[in-house]
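[stage:ingest] chain + small molecule (pyridoxal-5'-phosphate)
[stage:ingest] validated
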Amino acid sequence: MSLIEHIIRPDVRALSAYHVQDAQGFVKLDAMENPYTLPPALLAELGQQLADVAMNRYPVPSYTSLKQKICATQSVPAGFDLVLGNGSDELIAILSIACAKPGAKVLAPLPGFVMYAMSARLAGMEFIGVDLQADFSLDLPAMLAAIALHRPAITYLAYPNNPTGGLFDPADMIEIIRAVGDTGVVVVDEAYQPFAQTSFLPRLAEFPNLVVMRTFSKLGLAGIRLGYMSASPALLHEFDKVRPPYNVNVLTQTAAEFVLRHTDILDQQAALLRAERSRMRAALAQLAGVEVFDSAANFLLLRVPDVDRVFARLLEHKVLVKNVGKMHALLRNCLRITVSTPEENSLFFDAFVASLAS
Ligand SMILES: *Cc1c(COP(=O)(O)O)cnc(C)c1O
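[stage:predict] done
[stage:export] tokens:
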């Protein structure tokens, strides 16, 4: 038996490494990044503040001032606190570890965000996927039946959903939250909230089993890795015990506090991207053979006649999007494209039209 076979878990050995395409020289529309940066004067000011950070000191693990600034600017309801994560990916891992009692299960609709299943399995929990309907809405009877059968410890609902882009019916979501009841938590993942402008955060007090999760990533700060979640104080108290004490570094903390003093800029950028989403959706819908799905996020899901061919042609045009055609049967021939600046969107559009034709 080799060293690897001796020490590494068989399920880990069986995983394939997460493949990230090298984007050097490409118009990068594959990862829902915000194309805009801060104005130069603010960047210079931020640089000065980062230079003053005490990098020789550990962060203060309570993160009180950053949490207060998030609560104040993001309308976290009074009486609700936060747990911060190194991106929401870490929050998902924290939830998994905290809830991984023997036999505990995790449930989410499919197609959905891949980290829910990945993180559940790494923590030793069974993942139950429930297919969406063909129009990417929730299959409520199937969800309720799976909840009754499996009693999942964690149920994830991404709102809007990735990679489909739409918002689930909030009435369906509330039925799910009620059906899960006091045997599980329901995590409403609002990674795309700035583009959806609707939220479950104001409803936290209504549902003791509700967790609302958000991230700075899609807002233009994917590189600083900062996510947060809120829930009842009793739940947060337990989740916070699992969090590595210094999981948010001092540079991230300083950058986030700085940006939160300029939320008007983030709001303007999100508004530009929402306007571009409408423009692109309308233009793409005019193309013969192309189906465009409704999106409340900063990306659009498209169906084309032959996704592998279109994806390869787009690469030749130096445009990188995400081919999700093999991710799930419901996504056959689908591409996911990030909405970017008017210039990059037009570059994509022209390359896309050429790719369809050739
Ligand atoms: C992008 C995304 C996240 C964000 O992850 P980070 O680790 O915060 O960058 C979380 N949930 C969904 C559904 C996403 O699409």
